[in-house]
């Protein structure tokens, strides 16, 4: 009897393990597929590129590096990867963690040591937010490092949810319709910045990072509170997502599907030059008709399912 019980329990733990493995493989496939698609859609990486992958020690950048290393192996083009971490000398920063991890992968990497922490503490009065000076300093150091390393692309670990949060931050606090681009030239005009996780959800990344047991370095070592406005937007989006499943996906599709004629930016659309055409105009003004979303939403939901399942 005892034997039977133990056999049964071993079978059930086996099937739980198999299920876990199956789910992880599905998740991994989906993330790889989404990164590959973003790279392709925005021509992020080209033959001969040297990609500087910025590694903070958080879940996003570990996941990005892991997936880029895989894609490099199977890509039909040749590109190099060099991982870079900036040790900002925050108190308690576990400086052995990243070198040990990167050495275990056997890849090129560079740890840049710059005490921006002291500069920030020195310049910013107690109680004021330190993030804007800190990130300005970090940006400058990363640009300089990219130049020294001869990197042709700088890869950052921002994902889809970061992009949407930025969209709302800019709308709510900056009066701009502007998100975070998958690919853009750097503000000093000297580098091309790419975000290969642009199509990946934070939830997937979190699950992947947990399953892969990356050696995460806490991100609050500087003692600064995470930007409160961003935190509020994040909560708003999470709340919407719970109450209206599919809304996040729909909003992300919206930033890929912009109709300048239906906004009010006269620099983006030449309203002064509008003329009648005498023939039906696709997407012309429907005057008093209320917009209809039913079919579009259903269509969107179908497409979302497709996107999610692309990698399955
Ligand atoms: S949270 Fe800390 S390390 Fe991050 S940007 Fe702000 S000050 Fe810098």
Automatic annotation (TrEMBL):
It comes from the Bacteria. One of its GO terms (biological process) is tRNA thio-modification. A motif (PP-loop motif) lies at residues 56-61. Keywords: 4Fe-4S, ATP-binding, Cytoplasm, Iron, Iron-sulfur, Magnesium, Metal-binding, Nucleotide-binding, RNA-binding, Transferase, tRNA processing, tRNA-binding. Binds 1 [4Fe-4S] cluster per subunit. The cluster is chelated by three Cys residues, the fourth Fe has a free coordination site that may bind a sulfur atom transferred from the persulfide of IscS. InterPro entries: Rossmann-like_a/b/a_fold, TilS/TtcA_N, tRNA_Cyd_32_2_STrfase, tRNA_thiolation_TtcA_Ctu1. It catalyses: cytidine(32) in tRNA + S-sulfanyl-L-cysteinyl-[cysteine desulfurase] + AH2 + ATP = 2-thiocytidine(32) in tRNA + L-cysteinyl-[cysteine desulfurase] + A + AMP + diphosphate + H(+). Residues 50-212 form the tRNA(Ile)-lysidine/2-thiocytidine synthase N-terminal domain. The keyword tRNA processing applies. It is found in: Cytoplasm. The thiolation reaction likely consists of two steps: a first activation step by ATP to form an adenylated intermediate of the target base of tRNA, and a second nucleophilic substitution step of the sulfur (S) atom supplied by the hydrosulfide attached to the Fe-S cluster. Catalyzes the ATP-dependent 2-thiolation of cytidine in position 32 of tRNA, to form 2-thiocytidine (s(2)C32). The sulfur atoms are provided by the cysteine/cysteine desulfurase (IscS) system. HAMAP family: TtcA (MF_01850). NCBIfam families: PRK10696.1 (NF007972). Homodimer. Belongs to the TtcA family. This is tRNA-cytidine(32) 2-sulfurtransferase. It comes from Alteromonas confluentis.
């Amino acid at each position: 009897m005892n034997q039977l019980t133990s056999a049964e329990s071993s079978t059930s733990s086996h099937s739980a393990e198999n299920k876990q493995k199956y789910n992880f493989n599905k998740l991994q496939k989906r993330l790889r597929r989404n990164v590959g698609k973003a790279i392709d859609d925005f021509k992020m990486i080209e033959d001969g590129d040297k990609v500087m992958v910025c590694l903070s020690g958080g879940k996003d950048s570990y996941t990005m590096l892991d997936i880029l290393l895989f894609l490099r192996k199977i890509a039909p083009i040749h590109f190099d990867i060099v991982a870079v971490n900036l040790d900002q000398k925050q108190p308690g920063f576990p400086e052995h963690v990243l070198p040990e991890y990167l050495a275990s992968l056997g890849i090129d990497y560079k740890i840049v040591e710059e005490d921006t922490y002291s500069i920030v503490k020195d310049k910013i009065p107690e109680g004021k937010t330190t993030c804007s000076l800190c990130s300005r300093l970090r940006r400058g150091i990363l640009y300089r490092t990219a130049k020294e390393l001869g990197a042709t692309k700088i890869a950052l670990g921002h994902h889809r949810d970061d992009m949407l949060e930025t969209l709302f931050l800019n709308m709510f606090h900056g009066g701009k319709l502007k998100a975070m681009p998958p690919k853009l030239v750097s503000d000093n005009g000297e580098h091309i910045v790419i975000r290969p996780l642009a199509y990946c959800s934070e939830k997937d990344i979190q699950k992947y990072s947990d399953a892969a047991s990356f050696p995460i370095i806490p991100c609050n070592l500087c003692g600064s509170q995470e930007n409160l406005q961003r935190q509020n937007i994040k909560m708003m989006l999470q709340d919407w997502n719970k109450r209206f499943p599919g809304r996040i996906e729909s909003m992300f599709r919206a930033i890929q599907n912009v109709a300048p004629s239906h906004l009010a930016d006269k620099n983006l659309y030449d309203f002064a030059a509008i003329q009648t055409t005498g023939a039906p105009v696709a997407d012309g003004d429907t005057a008093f008709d209320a917009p209809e979303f039913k079919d579009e939403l259903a269509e969107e939901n179908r497409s979302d399912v497709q996107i999610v399942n692309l990698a399955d």
